[in-house]
């Protein structure tokens, strides 16, 4: 039985897609496997199965403090990025004014600028205004880093937005604020949610910007892991990394459960 050219192409595409998925999943599988080893050194396949490295991480206040700092920084920075990025995207799409393209390029420049350069610039700016290495400096750096993700995602949703829906709402008596919160935001919600999720993830995994604004008592989880790897390597590093993987999976599952990934444009 011969396959048509279309079916053959679809089969090749499916095989290639699964190969890419497996390739991307292999490092995660290795990390999880190493985190479950009972040996005192990193090895894969694991030598026996044990949760002792997870227990070591959970009972280590250094990792716990770094974890909660990462959660706090990522959550607050994402909120700031949404508050600033969504209105900025709306203005860039709807308002035609001199310098709009330059402002758009400025907003998106952190996507092009090396993050290590951004980290140095944020630290110098914070030191000049008296903040130094502080939570506020970390927040500024992370916010600047992730705002472009919110803007880009929101711009995609606004590209096909029908302004007549807003005009209809205003004709029925809705004010500008009511129209924005009851009409505009619900319609572009998938792009906003996707942008917020990407922003949170990029903030969570960032090392380059965070490392310049960190101190001994103010260190995010990725920076803590980076520092520990320099001095010693044991399966607890894999356990910490595996916990972040589990957290990411839980976030995606909750997003799919309560909102639906298709509605966010992620599938």
Main sheet overview: none
Label the structural class: mainly alpha
Following the backbone from N to C, one meets helices and strands in this order, namely: HHHHHHHHHHHH
Strand content: under 5%
Average pLDDT works out at: 78
Under the CATH scheme, the architecture is Orthogonal Bundle
* Gap from first CA to last CA: 33 Å
CATH superfamily: MetI-like
Continuous helix count: 12
Helicity level: over 70%
Contiguous uncertain segments of 5+ residues: none
Radius of gyration: 23 Å
CATH fold field value: MetI-like fold
Q: What count of domains describes the coordinates? A: 1
Please identify the top-level CATH class: Mainly Alpha
Compute the number of strand runs: 0
Global geometry: globular
